[in-house]
Amino acid sequence: MEPDENFYILALDGGGARGIYPAHILARLERELSIPIGECFDLITGTSTGSIIAGAAAAGVAMQTVADLFEDQAPAIFSRKRFGWGLFRSKYERQPLAQIVQQFLPELRMGEITTPLLITSTDISTGGVRVIKSRYLQEQGQEYVRDGDVPLRDAILASCAAPSFFDPMQVDDYLLADGGLWANNPSILAATEAVSKFGRPLSRVHILSIGTGKPRHLYERGRSWGIATGWGRLKLVSYFLDLQSQASTNMATLLLEDRYFRMNPEIENWGLDDTRHLIALKVKADSDFTRDFGEIQKKIKRGCGQRSETESASIRGSPGGLQLQKTVNT
User: Fold this and answer.
1) Pick the catalytic residue: 42, 178, 273, 288?
2) What are the backbone angles phi and psi of residue 130, rounded to the nearest 5°?
3) Interhelix angle for 278-297 vs 20-33, to 10°?
4) 48 flagged as catalytic
5) What is the pTM of this model?
6) For 26-29, which contacts have Cβ atoms below 8 Å and span 24 or more sequence positions?
7) Over the stretch 19-71, which tens digit does the pLDDT of each residue have?
8) Catalytic site includes residue 292
9) Catalytic one of 13, 42, 48, 147
10) From 127, 173, 212, 252, which residue has the greatest number of CB atoms within 10 Å?
């Protein structure tokens, strides 16, 4: 078999509890291929809830473990609202999320992770963007001085700090918040990294992009348009994140054409912290995976456990398959 000169990217959107959708798709894919997700892509990138999944994949955590985490623990993360939230405080304490991240993610620093990984965040002190990277630049002989000592867990908590939902996260000298403020769908960022840092031509870049659902509608006519009455504080944050995802999708599609494959189901107006629809999203992920498995196979590295369509059809939907350990030493 000739060497595969293509460059394969996994890009995962933010979306709070709705992250169960991409997590379950990747759990199905991992079972189907019998290979860890981290070995199937040349670069993995995630924003907010997508950074949890991306970081887990890069650290060797089984995707079924991540999918179960969303189903079992999301209600605990988004259940205890803080007193006085909205006007004076973020809606949720970060501690429940931090404890869960600590329990299932290994204690790694970004400089210890060999899988190329990008985690997005926002430096709210300067109004700048902040991309936290694993050590792949160093391995290519490029300068890598800033992110090596950043704990993976801290990078993820920073990326998850959606305004008004969670407080910003202090990481070294930086005050960081949700990367979704500028890259809720990190596909364009990842394509840029492939070209500028890995030296791959854009014509060789392939992206599997998985969202967390696009609401059918958010606003109606005949409303008062104050922050509290019409726009809605939390709804406005969700609106901005959805718009960024759509813009990135449109640009990636124009640039990459059929080398870009996007999975992002249409949903009702389900908020980032609405945990009542986890099962519905899981069922939707199963359906979409079965429908799109052929396209998904085209967006992973050649030889990464691909089966023929006949072989794949025989085990789709099977509860069996790969059972990875929780973590793989990096």
Assistant:
1) 178
2) -140, 120
3) 40
4) yes
5) 0.88
6) 26/53, 26/57, 26/63, 26/66, 26/67, 26/210, 27/62, 27/63, 27/64, 27/66, 27/67, 28/285, 28/286, 28/289, 29/63, 29/289, 29/296, 29/300
7) 999 999 999 999 999 999 999 999 999 999 999 999 999 999 999 999 999 99
8) no
9) 48
10) 212
